TrEMBL record:
Keywords: Membrane, Transmembrane, Transmembrane helix
Protein name: Prepilin-type N-terminal cleavage/methylation domain-containing protein
Top-level taxon of the source organism: Bacteria
Membrane-spanning intervals of the chain: 20-38
Amino acid sequence: MTDMDNMLRNNKGLTLAEVTGTLVLTVMLLGFMLFLVMQAHNGVRDVSGSEAAVQQSQTIVNAIVASARQYGFKPSAAPNSLQFTGSGGESVTYTYNPANRSVTADSRRLDGQGVLQQSSIVFPGQVASFDCNVTGSKIEISLTMLRPNKQIYQTSTTVYSLS
C-alpha cells in the first residue's frame, strides 16, 4: 500500500458535510434562543407600558376628582375640556390635545396673599380620548388610554362636585 492509499483510508477527522451540518444546527439553535429572549423582552416591555397607561389614567382621574371636590368650584364641560371655576378668579381647566394625545391641567389659584398663581401640568402621551359630561353637580368622566400593544384601556367614573 502506498501513502496515498493510507490517507484515503484514514477515518480520523470530519468531512465537510458533517462540519456544515453542525454549523447549520448550531446557528438554528442560537437563532431560536435569541427569538425566545426577544419575545420575553417584548412581553415585559408591553406589560410595563400597559401598567404605565393604567397608572397615568388613574392619575388624571384622581386629579379631576380632587378638583371636583374643591368647595365652591363649579364644573362646566366643552368638547375636549373640563373647567372648574371658583370665586376670586380661581379655576382649573383640563384640556385634551388629540395631536399629542395628552391632557393638560391649567390652574389659577389664590395664594396666601390673595394673588392668583398660575400653574400647568401635562399628562403626556397615551390618551386616546377624553370625554366629560356635566349635569348640575354631576360629572361623568370617560378616559381611554392607548397601550403599547395597540390595545385600549378605558376608565370612567362619576363624581359630584361640592358646589
